[in-house]
Each structure stands twice: as structure tokens, then as C-alpha cells.
Amino acid sequence: MQQDSSLTEPMTDDLDGDRLREYCGVFGVFDFPEAAAITALGLHALQHRGQEAAGIVSFDNGRFHGERRLGLVGDHFSKESTIRRLPGAAAVGHVRYATTGETVLRNVQPLFAELNSGGFAVAHNGNLTNAQTLRRELIREGAIFQSTSDTEVLLHLVARSRKTQLIDRFIEALRSIEGAYSLVALTNKKLIGARDPLGIRPLVIGELDGKYILASESCALDIIGARFVRDVENGEIVVISENGLESLHPFPPQPMRPCIFEYIYFARPDSVVHGRPVYEVRKAMGAELARERRIIADVVVPVPDSGVPAALGYSQESGIPFELGIIRNHYVGRTFIQPTQSVREVGVRMKHSANRCVVEGKRVILIDDSIVRGTTSVKIVQMMRDAGATEVHFLISSPPITNPDYYGIDTPQKDKLLAATHTLEQMRAYIGCDSLAFLSVDGIYRSMGYEGRDPQRPQFTDHCFTGDYPTALTDLAGENRAQLSLLAEAS
């Protein structure tokens, strides 16, 4: 299998350090001419889900070919020379933001292994909450790991299975893992998709010219002109081969609990997630926020780009005019800002600038989708004041984030989350706004078409707001036990 050998890491900045970071996106096609080129287009549509690395593995004439690169899809996979090194009619691809494992080439997916049944490539969106525990067990038994990615644990489990058929080995491996996953895997004869039993991470099936496609979001189907068929169900495994599509349900049925942040932040606005247009859901969240928090003001201003649909919804429900009071500079690349303190202090103004003619002399309602650490919010509010706003009211179209995520979203630990360490009034004072309000947890559910959150059977994975983690957190429990043991020894 061919692999790029560059180990140069991209320069990063902290302009987005106060945002929830994307996890990953996956894409796969089977029996398509120029499969790698189609996969590259699909990954380009999923670029918002991971911007640190991208990779494609293809299969052609008995051989697997792979290209894995640090950086954006368009920087590498738009080149004809790169696509020529990926021949074949089947391919899987991945865009990555590192939540488990550092950003170096050996962690870039799809990961590939030669098994006794042939080559096996796998790409993973999500995070396994028992990966470190399994990893230690596998190493004790003699396994040799080439990466620090939790996805490699799955490869080892598949390789060690005693089952005869590869799909049975794959299922046996899935029975050992916990957490959140959407997977696409490629063998010499099949494209396989799998979704965790709760359906925390999304995966959809598309069709083009009678051939099937797997992708994290429906927007990746749109870019290649494919038809959306359906979502992969929670706990379902789909096997695509020359015989068509086969559906397997090897796990006991459970109520679905997809990640609520797909609707709040992660999915592209033009995607449809579980039958709900993301753009419309975000507008509904803004409208619900207006019903929960009425403010006398002159203008509603979104924090671009993520706050735009919610701000539209708030404006339409409240009757307060919507205006673009903050202009985003889309040409500030992630590698442009140098990591010096003086430049970091003005970095937010390089990415966002106030539209003075809109906000000067006005009572402004700022709408954003979330607050993590709050550092960017401080700068945005001050920017409005510097542009002449007489009042700045900061409204958030999701509840306060009080708990970290362990399913593939890169959130700070609890002591770094502003809402976990401050009261609402303390948060308001820190950010410097005249008032601060969040959409309630029940409001989020009402925006999704429910009467509110059912505490007995929540319809979504919403632990960042509620602390209700839907799966075991084996690795975290192990870390806590180790810390308690060290404290006991110290005392």
C-alpha cells in the first residue's frame, strides 16, 4: 500500500480555540469508475467535520492504494497526480480533527492492515470510550501498535478474531468496543458501513447510477449528484458488494440517541439529519430562544457563520430586524496567524470585524450557537461596544455546556468550561455583555418537535448539557481509579 511519507505538521492558531472542534467525516463508494475522485469530492463537502488531515484508500486489480495527508482536502486531493495514484472502482475516505491521538501522519485515516483474509481499510467518526483499556490489554498480549488512534484498536480486534468470515470478525470486534462510532471499511470485495447501537454518530446511504454510497452527511451526496436513500440505523451494519446492499442488525435493539450537536453546530446547514433539515432546526432554535427570552432591542446580529440561522429565527419570531453586524473574513487561513501573543490579541479582528453602520447607536442582540471557554465571546462583545453599540445582549441558541464530551467532540475538561465554573451572572460579567441567556434544555427538544426532554428516555445524546452520558466511560473510570490510587499512596 502506497503512503505519503511527509511528516510536516500544519501550523495552528487559536482563533478557533474557543469553539467546539469538529470530530471527523467518512465517505465510501463501491463499483464506481474513478472512485477516488468521487471520494475526494465527498470529502470536500465534509471538510467542516475535520480540517487537520485527510486520506483515501482505494482498491484496484488486487491491490490497495493509499494517500494520507496533513492539511485540507483541496490542498492535496484536487491534484490529478494524487488521484492517479489511487486507481480502482472502490474507495473509502476520511477527514480528521484529532480527538484521540496527536496530529501526525501515522494517525491519519483510513487505517489499513493486511489480514489473513486480505487487506482491510477502515475510517472512523467518533470516539471509543474503552479504547485505552483495550489497547493496554492488546499490548500485554503482544500486539504492536503503529499509531495512537483509537481506531487502530478495532483493526487489532478484527485481526485477532477466530471467526471465519471477515464480516463476522468485524461484528465480533464491534461487540468489544464502547462509545460512539460511524465506520466505513473496505475489503477487496465489499464496502462496509456500521453505526454504534445508539446512533450517536451519523451515517447515510446514497445512490448514484444504481451504485451505493456511504457518507457522514447528506451534503456529501449532493455534491456528486447522488440521491439520498436513508440513514443507516443505529446498531446497523450495511454490506455493499456486487450483490447489492445487505443490512445486518447484530445488536439488541435500543432507542436511538443521536448527538444533539449535529443540529446545533456540526452538520452543514444544507444537510438533512434523520429527516430534519439542519437549517430549519437551527432557525427553530432561534425562534424558541425568542419565546423564552424577549428583549427590547434594535437589531439582531449573528456571530458568523454558525449563529446565522438561529439569529434569523430569533428575528422572525421577535420582529426585531436581522442585520449582518459582524463581517467574517473567509480568507484568513488557519496557517496564516503566527503564534505570537501580540498577533493573537488582534486575531479575532482579523477573522471578524464589526459593521459599524449596522450597530452604532443601536441596542444589539448578539446570537451565537454555544459558549465554551468564553474568551472569543469577550472579544466579540467588546468589538460591538467599540463600534458604538449602546447595549449588547448575548443570547445562545443552546443550553450551557457544563460537561465534557467523550464521544468525538474536542471539548475542554470540566474545569475549563465557563458554564461549569461560573454562575450565569458571573459569566455575564466576564463576557462584558448587558444580559446573557441560553436556550433551555427543554427548548432544544421543543425545537426538534418534542414537548420537552423526557428524563426517562431522552431522545438525543445531550450529556454536555445534562451530564447524562449514554454509554459506559470505561477509560475515564480507569483514569479516576488510578488518580485515587495515587492520592491514597501520597497520603
Named at the architecture level, the CATH assignment of the largest domain is 4-Layer Sandwich
Report how far apart the termini are: 53 Å
What is the helix tally?
18
> Shape from CA axes?
globular
The largest pleated sheet is described as:
7 strands, antiparallel
CATH superfamily grouping of the largest domain: Aminohydrolase, N-terminal nucleophile (Ntn) domain
Mean pLDDT: 89
- The largest beta-sheet arranges its strands as 3-2-4-1-10-9-11
CATH topology of the largest domain: Glutamine Phosphoribosylpyrophosphate, subunit 1, domain 1
Q: What is Rg?
A: 23 Å
Oligomeric organization of the protein chains: single chain
Structural class label:
alpha+beta
Low-confidence stretches: 2-16, 334-341, 484-491
Total domain modules: 2
Strand-residue fraction? 15-25%
Helix content: 25-40%
Total number of beta strands: 21
CATH class of the largest domain: Alpha Beta
